[in-house]
Amino acid sequence: MATRGDFVAFDLETTGLSPKSDRVLEIGAVRFDATMRRVGELEVIVDPGVPIPLAVQRLCGITEADVAGAPAPVEGVAQLADFCADAELVAHGAGFDVTFCAGLVPGAFSGRRVLDTLELARILLPTAPSHSLPLLSAAIGIEHLRPHRALSDASATQLLFARLRAAAQALPVGVLAQMRGVAAQAGGELGLFFTAVVDGVGDPQRRAWAGASRAAPPPPPPTGPPPADLVAAATALLGAGVPPRMAGEGFELREAQLEMTRAVAQTLQRRRRLIVEAGTGVGKSLAYLLPLALHSRSGRRAVVATRTITLQEQLMERDLPMVETLVGAPIPAALLKGRNHQLSLRRWQRFLGSADAGPHGPDLDRVRFKLKLLAWLAETEQGDRSELHLNGSEETLWRHVESDGGDCLGAACANWQSNRCFMVAARRTAEAASIVITNHALLLADAAAGGQTLGEHEALVIDEAHHLEAAATEQLGINLRAFDVLVVLDRLGPTEGELEAALSSAREATVRLFGDVKGRIGEVLGSDHSGNATVGVSREVRDAHGHAILLRSAEHATARWRAAALHLRDPELAGAMQIDLLPQPDRADQERFLAATALDELAAAVERVLLRPRPGHVAWLALRAEQGELHEAPVTVADALRESVFTRAETVIATSATLAVGGDFGFTRDRLGLDDADELLLNSPYDFLAQALCILPSDVPSYDEPDHDRAVASLVGDTAERLGGSTLALFTGYNPLRRVHALLAQRMEASGIALLGQGLDGTRRQILGSFLANRRTVLLGTSSFWEGIDVPGDALRCVVIAKLPFAVPTDPLVKARTESLSDPFGQYVLPQAVLRLRQGFGRLIRHGTDRGVVVLCDERLRSREYGERFLAALPPAAVVTMPVADVGDAVAGFVLHQRVPITTRMSASGRQSEQDHPMHEDPA
């Protein structure tokens, strides 16, 4: 029954984000009835009684003069209380606004129900690129004339609320009924919205999408034989002139790109192996895709494996269409991700039917996740999780519903038989493709499984190849948490009697084991460690007295898991399961056997880490977000790559922007097992001498001295103020990032420059989006920002690198990989750090018109002999040394006025020469 009362959408603007220390600045509200018709508005500016931060004044447009003589916040909120009397409240991000209101007028707002359009939008618009009110309004065509003004935000919230109700009412009949059932269990605001606000039964003409439900694509039409001379054909197509369509997209042929195209074509013809370093701007994707497209005309298949989904999607959506333009014919290509990217309809049905009870009432995270996926499944055609934006808790919940080889009925699954399975549909599409774009993880998993997924392929291109060793290490190793075991023990739903006793005992043993892992880490490291820590299971650690407790827990847990597996296989205990809750009750025996097999494999994994360590492998305990973990990995992956990955293709090409150390590919060859590969090193076509400057501050203390953070903060602050933002600072860990963030916060606030810290001010995607959207921003990032981000133009004009990115010397994997080397530092630690630094430097110049400065704050570049190795490996930019106090002016002079400081210039050999003039004009 639809509610017939009024609603009030409201919004507050405040001086900051803390209800304890910040104040209300402006109130806006819109009252509307059950038909979504507006019946009134409220707009009140209040005097917060404290200074308005400059950044807030610029964001909202409200100045000190605007609030002079205005009522106090409590008076304004009292007006809002009168305005929304007897109405249901609506807000976007409701918790923020209602907390401020309840602090001022608790009688009207404490405990008051608020319908949150942010929560509802995440459920009903699950594929929207952003759910922030301004961006979402723009994306779906809602008028929002004055973002960050209270009345405009309230008005946009009212329009969004109406749109969300309409979206719910337009859902397929069966889907809306299911969502009402799930929401009713939760009660509260979600129950109110779906059972009272949303009326009708849904759209009877719209069919719920029941899975892939599509046939495999037909084989591609023949496009003629491959050219007799692949090299000549490929280079002729690329060098014949830029087609108008590609010219319109900004394509520009470069000699280095033509050279790489020629080398790839030669390698394909000769069926050899090739390592190619192609600097930023070479255009390596097109350089290998064009020869592959011509090579595949004879029915030969190729696989392209990348590390990131971003690059996979770029290849499919941008680069392959360009190749089709060049060759004048469609290219049968498919994007194939790991199966865990696809939702399993069977596992989803089982999860949907599971209870949502938490320790203190309904588990709202589970309820929201179920509602979100119900709405998503009514529209998705791929079942690909990348269409969704999953937060931290949802990432964990996805594990319950993702396609999982250890929980798959295969051909016995009803969704497989009816061709509704998303994973099967994706793989059938890939089977018909000449070029398959995939990721490193799936490439490695497929090799381990004998090629069942990717099938036969004559050519293999590994892009982002500098990550292949890490991907292989993870794929061939073990990473185990309590959740991995509990999700298996709990996936069959309620059980009874002897079976439930065995499963319960296994759960208790699981909790005990991973609790003892956490305790053992505390014993080894003492209390002086954060919530994240690592302890190698070395001989010394194993022989210590305290380790016996952990070993007993491991023996107990593996015994309990195997006992539970035996009970699951026992046919006499089959009746202890409520099989009517399973998606296919007739396959209950197979469900039990799959769970039993998974438990046996988990027991074997624990034995490998703790009880029976294997030669050639290293094991360690880890603590992540206060949760214990068990790990094991091979010391070297080169042999495995050589034998199981590279031998499956006639031609192997490994490419990246960073594979050589000082022009030498030896490190990459050794780590990947590409001993017999040809080499090609192509420098970036960008003019780094004109476009980039490298500064070495001469007086930054060593990173382990107390004043190091203060010097870095001072340098970043000076630079950001002179550039008006546009600054990225890279750190090797979260602790120094947090310290510099704290030192900079007040200064950046006073300067009207936004300060964003990874892990402090939002997710990686959120803060990167904010950085791209507003030049007046400083971003502090750690490991994931050293590469894989593309910030062209004025948005990024200075990169500050706080410390050289050496691997942590106590890391168990690093120790294991270096202990047999005659020169561990020179043969492993140093080259790895050089490649990493090159990635960080590479964030700066992304296009031919970019201009910027990299500031390297590690004094070891000047004081240690190996500093020359780092500098020699960097792009050929001018390198200058100067005091911290001069860096801000030098950065601004180079970026804004094309002045190159030459007070002290350091050559690649490390020699310094004094110059008479502090600055000169760059002819560029």
Automatic annotation (TrEMBL):
Gene3D superfamilies (UniProt xref): P-loop containing nucleotide triphosphate hydrolases, Ribonuclease H-like superfamily/Ribonuclease H
- The sequence motif named DEAH box is recorded at 463-466
**Biased segments, Pro residues type:** 216-227
SMART domains in the record: DEXDc (SM00487), EXOIII (SM00479), HELICc2 (SM00491)
Which residue ranges does UniProt annotate as crossing the membrane?
none
The record's similarity note reads: Belongs to the helicase family. DinG subfamily. Type 2 sub-subfamily.
Q: Per its database record, what is this protein's job? A: 3'-5' exonuclease.
Question: Which named protein is this?
Answer: 3'-5' exonuclease DinG
Originating gene? dinG
